[in-house]
Design goal:
By secondary structure, the chain is an alpha+beta fold. The protein has a single domain (2-172), classed as Thiol Ester Dehydrase, Chain A. Helix content is 33%, strand content 29%. It has five helices and six strands. A hairpin with a 4-residue loop joins β5 and β6 (142-143). α1 packs parallel to α2 (49-66). The longest helix is centred in the first third of the chain and has 18 residues, at 2-19. 23% of the residues are buried.
Length: 186
């Protein structure tokens, strides 16, 4: 339940920052400062690996709101979902430790948007994730990348994903929701 309160707080703070002119561009790095709470810890006394994924949700919400994309997508009846994510850990976070979540859109493939996110402490990367997401329509269906780019404007030069990311997404993707996906172990 604590993540729900943190999420509501981030939504409120992001809107407040945006209203006070502290915005970010669609392709800029968004940053939020957080602290490791007791509810973030595992039995070994460091931030639980699963909590990082929820913390990265907060970074994406902040980026979407302060860049103005949240209002654009909400007005169109679109909402974001995560398709795939990969995360690498370098150093542990401990109780009450302050850290920054950095989030940035890094590019698109033919079906989705890619975001890189980092946990940074005093300028040093502790954790990094690549998140591949899509937008769905509240009326049903998937928002195409062409529709997405039309809504947000032209993509600047240099905003492109690396080839390994496309291979990774293809290799880890599950069948579509309209296809069978039986749980059969080899």
């Amino acid at each position: 339940m604590h993540m729900m309160f943190r999420t509501m707080l981030i939504f409120w703070l992001a809107r407040r920052r945006k209203n006070r002119g502290r915005t970010v561009g669609h392709y800029d790095v968004g940053r939020i400062r957080l602290t490791v709470l007791p509810t973030d810890l595992d039995l070994l006394g460091h931030m639980n690996n699963g909590v990082y994924l929820s913390i990265f949700d907060l970074g994406r919400f902040d980026l979407l709101i302060r860049s103005g994309l949240w209002d654009i997508f909400d007005g169109l009846g679109w909402y974001p979902v995560v398709n795939n994510e990969t995360i690498s850990f370098r150093k542990s976070l401990r109780l009450w430790q302050r850290f920054t979540v950095e989030s940035r859109v890094i590019g698109f493939d033919d079906r989705a948007v890619y975001i890189e996110q980092r946990v940074v402490v005093k300028g040093e990367v502790y954790t990094k994730a690549i998140v591949r997401g899509r937008f769905l329509k509240k009326t049903g269906g998937v928002v195409s990348v062409d529709e997405l780019i039309e809504a947000i404007g032209a993509v600047p030069d240099g905003v492109r994903i690396e080839e390994w990311m496309v291979r990774w997404a293809d290799e880890v993707s599950l069948p579509s929701t309209k296809s069978p996906a039986p749980s059969v172990w080899p």
